[in-house]
């Protein structure tokens, strides 16, 4: 039996609902009594092929694809979706899954053991740079046992493997529609999830309708969902107020959140607030002549005022973060605060002088203009102001849209750049492992043998995730000492809906991905 620390209790979207006005009857919406919901987000998919995605595309995948395991509402650990799974040995190196009976994809093709093997083999074979192959480092091979059983043979003990299987990166795909050695072309999706992708306009909207062949845990409370993609929070909230959409699920800016929290400004809207594990952080390129110097990195760590960023820019809708593992997970520390304390120009100057640096350091600081919300630019402007106010740095801010931005940092183009991170799964490993090693999610090799060869393998042997605290505290100490990753803030989760919609408080899974099937129109309120 897979036992783990029930850290999901920290991340469950416990509702804090405001601004409920009026009472009466609301029609269920749609013709013929059909339940139809329209949802807005600022996070559009970068791809429709799961083998290429390790990003916000997962929001769509969760709703149109199925995974072997998933997180039903209220679950604190992965539970059966397309299959029932368990470790087949005591060493946590052989993991067996038995599929539900008579599963099919939305086009009627069988979802059998061969299809599951095809799904994982193509992820490994295609190996998209920055894609989900990075989550399968412990996978050695996939075996089939008849039509309904798949066995994952691992190259090392890995108690976190069930969590990996529950991520939308491991969405099951139809071998007839998804080539074994290349990405699918043409913009189509064939899955076995709760919905079918009826139509898709890149960057504009996705139309989902019920999948009549679906067999899984999701209890759909609506018949169709339209997801609309917006360039920023302001336009998304305007659409919500104008009743062009019924709910939002990612990308609300702090000013809009503050506005929605006000009874006077709410206009009959509901705001659901929940604990979150999104983090924002800076990455230093070790090959850059300035960012590669520890003294420069540590001086920046000494100058950054996280509280000012959280309060002045984000209006206290985020919290200062002093370790890469966020509050609420085993291994969280306050390492950067413990080592650096309050921001200090004098201490930062001393760090630079010890390395013989006497002139202002030229620093090129990059951020993406369209990925992490409309306050990203003001946040980086605040960082620029803090560094230049010290007279120790001469900062140049630069930005690009996400698609070109991502290519730039993967090619090592940026000296210092900003990233955000939503967890693949709710476990401390997912805030350490993706960022270290020769090939990592940042495209910037970070070789740290004690973490990759000792601490991570050691923690993966332990199915009780509450027992791995010491390993991750040590990993945090190493990251603080190197200062190559500099955490800035930890976010909270907000879902805004019209007063006609219920289910917002249930719709976020432990990885804060929205389960669209939980949203429904009220028949009375």
Could you describe the 3D structure shown?
- The chain has 525 residues and is an alpha+beta fold.
- Among the domains are: 46-192, Dipeptide-binding Protein, Domain 1 (Dipeptide-binding Protein, domain 1), CATH 3.90.76; 279-491, Roll (Dipeptide-binding Protein, domain 3).
- The protein is built from 15 helices and 21 strands.
- It has helices at 8-11, 58-64, 113-126, 161-165, 233-241, 254-261, 263-266, 294-303, 306-313, 335-340, 345-354, 376-389, 402-410, 449-460, 469-482; strands spanning 36-41, 69-70, 79-80, 83-87, 94-99, 139-145, 149-154, 195-201, 205-210, 224-229, 247-250, 269-274, 279-284, 318-320, 361-368, 393-400, 416-421, 485-491, 493-498, 501-502, 520-521.
- It is globular.
- 52% of the residues are buried.
Q: Which consecutive residue ranges, at least 5 long each, have pLDDT under 50?
A: 1-32
State the CATH topology of the domain at 279-491: Dipeptide-binding Protein, domain 3
How many runs of DSSP E, i.e. beta strands?
21
Strand portion = 15-25%
The helix-and-strand class reads: alpha+beta
How is this structure best summarized?
Helices cover 26% and strands 21% of the residues.
Provide the fold topology.
Layout: H1 8-11, E1 36-41, H2 58-64, E2 69-70, E3 79-80, E4 83-87, E5 94-99, H3 113-126, E6 139-145, E7 149-154, H4 161-165, E8 195-201, E9 205-210, E10 224-229, H5 233-241, E11 247-250, H6 254-261, H7 263-266, E12 269-274, E13 279-284, H8 294-303, H9 306-313, E14 318-320, H10 335-340, H11 345-354, E15 361-368, H12 376-389, E16 393-400, H13 402-410, E17 416-421, H14 449-460, H15 469-482, E18 485-491, E19 493-498, E20 501-502, E21 520-521
Parallel strand pairs: 1-10, 1-11, 15-16, 15-17
Antiparallel strand pairs: 2-3, 4-5, 5-7, 6-7, 8-9, 9-10, 11-19, 12-19, 13-17, 13-18, 14-18, 20-21
């Amino acid at each position: 039996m897979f036992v783990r620390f029930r850290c999901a209790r920290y991340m469950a979207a416990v509702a804090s609902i405001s601004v409920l006005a009026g009472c009466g009857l609301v029609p269920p919406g749609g013709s013929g009594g059909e339940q139809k919901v329209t949802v807005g987000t600022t996070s559009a998919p970068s791809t429709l092929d799961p083998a290429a995605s390790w990003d916000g595309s997962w929001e769509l995948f969760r709703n149109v694809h199925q995974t072997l395991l998933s997180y039903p509402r209220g679950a604190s650990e992965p539970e059966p979706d397309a299959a029932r799974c368990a470790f087949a040995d005591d060493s946590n190196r052989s993991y067996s899954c038995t599929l539900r009976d008579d599963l099919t994809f939305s086009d009627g093709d069988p979802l059998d053991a061969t299809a599951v093997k095809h799904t994982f083999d193509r992820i490994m074979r295609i190996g998209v740079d920055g894609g989900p192959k990075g989550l399968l480092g412990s996978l050695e091979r996939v075996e089939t046992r008849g039509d309904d059983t798949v066995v994952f043979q691992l190259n090392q003990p890995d108690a976190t493997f069930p969590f990996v299987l529950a991520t939308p990166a491991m969405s099951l795909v139809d071998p007839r529609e998804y080539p074994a050695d290349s990405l699918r072309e043409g913009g189509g999706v064939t899955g076995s999830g709760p919905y079918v992708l009826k139509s898709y306009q890149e960057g504009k909207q996705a139309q989902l309708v019920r999948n009549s062949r679906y067999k899984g845990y999701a209890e759909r409370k609506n018949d169709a969902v339209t997801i609309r993609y917006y360039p920023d929070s302001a336009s998304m909230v305007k659409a919500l107020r104008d009743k062009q959409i019924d709910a939002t699920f990612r990308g609300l800016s702090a000013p809009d959140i503050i506005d929605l929290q006000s009874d006077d400004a709410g206009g009959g809207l509901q705001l659901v607030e929940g604990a979150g594990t999104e983090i924002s952080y800076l990455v230093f390129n070790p090959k850059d002549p300035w960012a590669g110097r520890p003294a420069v990195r540590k001086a920046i760590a000494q100058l950054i005022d996280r509280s000012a960023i959280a309060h002045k820019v984000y209006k206290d809708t985020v919290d200062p973060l002093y370790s890469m593992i966020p509050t609420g997970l085993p291994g969280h520390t306050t390492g950067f605060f413990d080592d650096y304390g309050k921001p200090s120009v004098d201490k930062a100057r001393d760090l630079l002088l010890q390395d013989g640096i006497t002139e202002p350091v030229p620093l090129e600081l990059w951020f993406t203009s369209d990925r992490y919300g409309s306050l990203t630019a003001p946040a980086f402007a605040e960082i620029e102001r803090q560094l230049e106010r010290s007279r120790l740095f001469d900062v140049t801010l630069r930005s690009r849209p996400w698609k070109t931005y991502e290519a730039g940092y993967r090619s090592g183009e940026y000296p210092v750049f900003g990233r955000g991170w939503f967890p693949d799964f709710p476990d401390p490993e997912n805030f350490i492992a993706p960022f270290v090693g020769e090939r990592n999610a940042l495209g910037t090799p970070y070789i740290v043998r004690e973490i990759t060869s000792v601490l991570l393998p050691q923690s993966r042997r332990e199915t009780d995730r509450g027992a791995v605290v010491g390993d991750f505290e040590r990993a945090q100490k190493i990251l603080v000492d190197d200062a190559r990753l500099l955490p800035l803030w930890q976010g909270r989760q907000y879902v805004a809906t019209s007063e006609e919609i219920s289910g917002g408080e249930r719709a976020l899974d432990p990885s804060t991905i929205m389960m669209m099937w939980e949203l429904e129109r009220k028949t009375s309120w």
